[in-house]
Amino acid sequence: MESPNERMKLAASFSKHFPRDFLRPYCHCTDASDITDDIINRRLKAFSCEWLTRPAVALSELAETLVKSGDKSSAMEELLEPRVHNAFQQHIGKILNEISPFRMDAENPAEQETLTRAEVHARMARLKDLTQSGNNLFVEAYIERSIEASTALYTTVIYLRVLAYIMNNPDQCAEKMRPDLDHAVFKRQPTIENYADIIYEGYKIKNGHEIAQGARLSLTELLDAKQKTPECDSTNLDQSEVLDTSAIPGDSTDVSSRKRKSGDKQKKTKKAKKTKK
After folding, report:
1. CA atoms within 13 A on the CB side of 219
2. Residue 114 to residue 242: CA distance in whole angstroms
3. pTM for this entry
4. CA–CA separation, 65 vs 158, rounded Å?
5. What is the DSSP string of 41-80?
6. Alpha carbon of 264 to those of 82, 250, 255, 271, 275: distances in Å?
């Protein structure tokens, strides 16, 4: 059985878990076609994905993610309230007015406004005012709750998308499993049934101890079971059940007879010493 330290060496790096592999800068990852099975297959790695190392742990992480995501549902509903949403979009509009001339991906750069040094300084001053801590408590609160809600939502949907990939592509999953792990049966026959066996082996081991099979008995039930067990009392045994020591070498005589023989030996030794004197 692996020790807790050995199992920790197999763990996916906390700072490199697979949801990060699907984040792209500048909101480029906005289309569902950006996360196809082929892309998932290319981006999932054993060092960042427990599904390919310790699938029982992956199921635990999925359950924790779904529960914590549910806890953020009220924040999501609040962010989608029309009045709240519109107020934040007005704030976004003000920031866009200041930074639009700086876009480098514009289709027609020649049509962009040409700024002087003084105008750039003025725009930066207005940006500072728009983002100054304490100037707009609504925006600050909106951003905080958006981080909580959006992170929960993104992580949840990525976990569910990868779960669907694993369940529907066990053969590709088997190819990506760590080679130093003993998953030979699953690698030879990559079926969900064999994958479930790996999950069970991981599930029944908790903190280095195997989970006991069957229901756990209460202390009173253990006491009752002990009382029902007959005590080993020689008075209750049939003569046929009494151990016959005559056939055991060195035990053909009882203790008292052995003591008598030892005493006789000592007397003979004393007599012999007196005779010599």
Report:
1. 0
2. 110
3. 0.61
4. 10
5. HHH--GGG-GGGT-HHHHHHHHHHHHHHHHHTHHHHHHHT
6. 110, 19, 15, 11, 17
- Give the long-range contacts of residues 49-52, CB within 8 A, separation 24 or more: 49/12, 49/17, 49/18, 49/162, 50/11, 50/12, 51/162, 51/163, 51/166, 51/173, 52/173, 52/176, 52/177, 52/178
Cβ atoms of 80 and 87 within 8 Å: the answer is no
pLDDT, one tens digit per residue, over 213-263 is 454 555 555 556 656 655 544 444 444 444 444 444 444 444 455 555 556
Choose among 54, 36, 18: nearest CA to 202: 54
Q: Are 91 and 129 in contact (CB under 8 A)?
A: no
Cite the DSSP H helix spans in 80-218. 82-99, 117-131, 137-168, 170-176, 184-188, 192-203
